[in-house]
Specification:
The complex is a heterodimer of chains A (547) and B (364). Chain A has 547 residues and is mainly alpha-helical. Chain A is built from 23 helices and four strands. In chain A, the strands form two sheets. In chain A, strands 1-2 form a two-stranded parallel ribbon. The two termini of chain A are 31 Å apart. With 364 residues, chain B is α/β, with parallel strands linked by helices. Chain B is 24% helix and 30% strand. In chain B, helix 3 crosses helix 4, helix 3 runs parallel beside helix 5 and helix 4 crosses helix 5. The longest helix of chain B is centred in the middle third of the chain and has 18 residues. Chain B is elongated and about 80 Å long. The chains are: A mainly alpha (547), B alpha/beta (364). Chains A and B meet through helix 19 and helix 20 of A and helix 2, strand 6 and helix 3 of B.
Chain lengths: 547, 364
Amino acid sequence: MTKARGLGLAVALGLAWLVTYPLLLTLLEALGGTDLTLAHFREFAGRSDEWRALWRSLWISVASVVLAGLVGTPLAFVFETTRFPGRRVLGALVALPVALPPLVGVIAFLFLYGESGFVSRLVQTVLGLERPPWRLHGPGAILLVHTYSMYVYFYLFVRAALQRLDGSMLEAAVSLGAGRWRTLWQVTLPQLRPALLGASLLTFMTSLGSFSAPYIFAGGYRVMTTQIVASRVSGQIALAQVEAVVLASLALVALAVIRRLQGDDAVASAHGIAPRPRQLTHPLARWGFAVLGWGTALFLLLPHATLLLISFVPHGTWTVEPWPPVLDGSNYHELFSHSERLRPIWNSLWMATAATAGAVFLGLLAARQSLRLRGRLGAALEALVALPWAIPGTVFAVALGTAFSVHAPWIGRFVWIGTPIILPLAYLVRCLPVTGRAALAGLRQLDPALEEASLSLGASRLRSFWQVVLPMVRPALAAGLGLAFITALGDFVTSIVLYTYETRPIAIEIQSSLRVQEFGIAAVYGVLLMVLSSAVFLLWGRGEQES
Amino acid sequence: MTRFLEIRDLAKSFGDVQVLQDLSLELDEGEILALLGLSGSGKTTALRLLAGFETPDRGEILVGGEDVTRVPPAKRGFGMVFQHYALFPHMTVFDNVAFGLRAQGWRPEKIGDRVAEALRLVDLSGFEGRKVSEISGGQQQRVAVARALAPEPRVLLLDEPLSNLDPALRERTRRELRDAVRRVGITTVLVTHEQEEAFDVGDRVAVLNAGRLEQVGSPEELYRRPRTRFLASFIGRASSVRGTFERTLDDDAWVTIAKVAESGTVSWSGRAFEAIRAGQPVDFIVKPESLRLVPPGKPGAVRGTVVERRFTGALTYCLVRLISGQELEVLDDAGTAEEGADILVAPRGEGPRPCVFQALELKG
């Protein structure tokens, strides 16, 4: 066991160096480094715009939870408890926004509902208005995008919980004389509490760290993430560090509060059989649901479709018409015939691949050692892997930027900022919770007797791992791998802090294209990201089914 | 002559809990030993220590004179059949059985023959290409046995190998398992909580209770001459009746007189394993097959009421409440006693001797 302990300790140290060390260094530098001072914090506390940004981050996150819950939960009920034409296909489509990188979703919304957006123009033309009917700007726009991309958490979590629900429990309630509503409120919903809280937590943390939507839609309307980047870009490094520390603290407090709420949930373990979906027999109801379902799907797919359409609009040809007058492949041709335009794609691909490989390796190693050792070291390994999940991406970017801008190898600091190392490293840290959790889930489900059987048959630990453990956890691992790859491939939030021109990823290139009004080019990049992500998402989905 | 497998003073605790204390056992080559015990008795820990998945706090394990106590499982050369089989679900039957051969570096051309041989042994020839999820529970169990036996281990360890099968299948599989193991002639340790399984498969049975070895012996010996109170009531069914020790008679049979009737007393005899003084309260532990229902007028009988009748097909048992309020289970040969009937119970001449132990003052 000493060998396992040694390895566990080494992994824990490595993870601490990657995960906690940069955060601690940031805190230390926010406190003035060696000459300890609260001056920077005092400066932060004295500025009203900082407090405003903090308040906005908080209320937008709460509102996102409420809105996403209001959309996602009923959808889950509809798809899980009733049968109607197209239920299976739609059920899968509804989860699609989760595979859309945040920035791509944001620009799709911009092209769709923005001032010169497709729908805006349509409404303007139909109603004969002078100006666009609305402006996609400020908190409303942020919340719209958040709801669109985050209701999926509620949808997926609640659907899974409904599938695990013990149908006989509902029958017991009904047999005791409870009506449909009483059963829903007193039996079903309490059983869904963990799922609802889990989705709330995920939505809250994602909103708190959300950067793309506030950055694109609400230039002057600063939330904490955009505030941090603005401070850093304007050279106020210390202030950015203080802001990062404050945002990280807010995230950790929120995490603790929601975890506390989750605490002692008593949920019946799944022994029973899930209640069967209700077959809608009345033709009107069937078609009503079908129309509603397909309508929803259309709304959900509209951003994807718009992105595709815009990618075929040549530069400068679409001005005031409701429908683009020219459609051709010139943007694609432009992109694929210039190596400098292709560079971000290669950058994103290799950096995401390297980061995912590293995250899978580290996550698997940490999960395995955590389960083998248990005890305090095991718990520490699990916590280290999970921590980056709770820390907004912007904060991590600032922390990594702080840690790796000094040459001091003896204390584990290198000048990696401005080199091709920093971005894959940042992606790796950000992906670690996903791959680590997947590995943990896979390994936990694994019957320990399988490995013991292999050992007792004379196979070495390494051989047992490769031939027995790894094949068994592959489906779970594939799910984590897919999600990690999508996250890294479409990353905008850490990239904008740490990129260099040579290593600029796709998301940065999209933003640059938008800035110079090359909407078609931005759309092509968006389509490529979308296609790559969806392909990975579909592969990942299949992996899930096999498990 | 030294024994083939020797277990000496094996002890293991998890935290504060001592799960196994000073276990010593010896097996001859080719012998099958059943480790019998309730859950929590330490039998599974004993098996895991043998397999090398746990390291003992004290004690030694020797195979053919070689100390393997600290040899890792992969190098120990012990085969194991797991409770839930632990077949590798992503491999075929063939790959499962060949796994150990490949891991131990068998030459590829010999592997095919050996796998075929192992599968023939468990009567599964022709199943090589099947996925393990495609075969029945009984077949999976046999694949697990074939997989464990294929690399020709020195010792075979069976962890409740039949508990996962439904009762109808269990008896047949048990016979097949016993035959396969006998045919190979491998030294085997079987862990089970089923007495019937232990008696049927084991040449000898070792009974564990709360981490201690109670007794080891042939099934016959354990049934006829249990040495401890636990064994006397654990093997088969048994009732306990309170009595008073009277005197000892003859060399080999200590006789106790139990006052079991309100009006007057009767004397029943049993076997005592401890020194008891006259007049001391004792527990008289007796199996239903050592008692019978007798017609009125028989001497040495006690009066009682049938409170429950249990018909198992071939045999009928009666639960009889004595006037003292204590309950006795009795084998009813005729099977005619009805619930509520007043009857008389007396010892049978044959059947295992009842046991007498100092009374346990458990309550009040």
